[in-house]
Amino acid sequence: MFVNRVSELELLKKRYASGKAEFFVLYGRRRVGKTELLARFCEDKRAIFFVSDLGSEISLRTALSAAVNTVLFGPNQMNAVYATWEDLFHALAQAAQNERLVVVLDEFPYLATAHPPLATILQRVWDQTLKNSQIMLILCGSYIGMMEATVLGYQSPLYGRRTAQYLLEPLQFQDARLFFPSFDAADQVRAYAVYGGTPAYLHTLQPHQSLSDNILDGILSRGSFLYDEVRFVLQQELREPRNYFAILQAVAAGKTRLNEIKQATGIEGATAYLDTLQQLHLVERTVPVTESQPHKSRRGIYRLKDHYLRFWFRYVHPNRSQLERGGAQIVLENQVIPEIDHFSSLTFEEVCQQTFWQAGLSGKLPFVPTKVGSWWNANEEVDLVILGEKDAVLVECKWTSKPAGMDILAELERKSTLVRPELENRPIRFALCSRSGYTPQLMKTAEARTDVMLFELADLVRSETQT
Ligand SMILES: Nc1ncnc2c1ncn2[C@@H]1O[C@H](COP(=O)(O)OP(=O)(O)OP(=O)(O)O)[C@@H](O)[C@H]1O
């Protein structure tokens, strides 16, 4: 099963069709599907696809030489090794002189580390010959920090050479749910809350088993792929993980403001760590949707960007001693199951947000949204506010087992008086999204009013995506 990535493939195809040399940089966190995407793209093309590993400069040059020669001259030439990287890149330029040639260097940071002058050499050959050829060079990497240092950043010799760069994001809910179509709608949201949109993590799910059995066997049990996955990935990205781990754990536990994070971790210099974690796309700082200058906002809060990171820091990392002694069932029963709905409620808001964006952009809302996000002040918050040029909808997302009633609408109307001053005279409408439906009285009210919309869980999980 290969899910979505339609717009990414389109972008790559467009560049391929440009008729000139292309230098495409694809990056994104581990397991997000970079290699798979590029493999699909290269399927029907004249392409050299090379995945680096932790080998030495000579072993990587030998392996890449073999890959290059096999594609350019056939398997008989496999043993000829280019004496220098210059020779190798010039050979690529030669081969791409009159004919499109795609060259993928996957896990490029490994190459750059094995041979530090490589970025400078590539830049030189690019400027001399490659840029005038028909090459489509794709550099790809997981270690986002390293990609930014070796290819994307100002300080890199390759800076300014790229013709396109793309950060591959995890799949959204509508795609992720295709990995567990047999779950009911509520469990699909819960599963997305736990696994997020990383295809490699979604692949571990056994759809014929219940969600809790999946969590037990595939996450909480020692030796399972996901049990140590976060530690493994973070240790590769971060040299001194201890303080980062403490900060990530605090944020996962709901400490979202800077002073709360400092207090929970005792780390005075938390800001610097948070900056790095943001650069690594592990943490994001969000501000109320109405803020016009996000960087200056005093209402910024920190959140973990990745769902599975959130789950791991909430339930695996803090319970490690118990889990190491075989206590997976106890952690599941005493913590995960009782809290799963509380844990999933934030994801439900995110699913609603994704749905409103999609609906709005495909003309299914009364107006085109320009921004969708949460709003909060020191004491109160509104789950979502959908802003258009001249419209605003305030949304309450209820992830509870009881039908939502008039009190929920009244509460949202009360909060609208707090948000109104920031809405620049836009008329306000209200929308409710509820996992468990609505009371008859609220349904009647919504029918009678043009400024109230009700959405059921089924409306929100209905899929229109491609596979
Ligand atoms: N769009 C997709 N639909 C379904 N499965 C996918 C998709 N993208 C990737 N996968 C699967 O997810 C797993 C991880 O993908 P892949 O190896 O491409 O990720 P990556 O970003 O290159 O990871 P790494 O950085 O760890 O090398 C693979 O098993 C792959 O087949």
From TrEMBL:
Residues 2-204 form the ATPase domain. This is ATPase. Transmembrane segments: none annotated. GO terms for molecular function: ATP binding. Residues 312-401 form the DUF234 domain. Signal peptide: none annotated. InterPro entries: ATPase_dom (IPR011579), DUF234 (IPR004256), P-loop_NTPase (IPR027417), Restrct_endonuc-II-like (IPR011335). It comes from Levilinea saccharolytica.
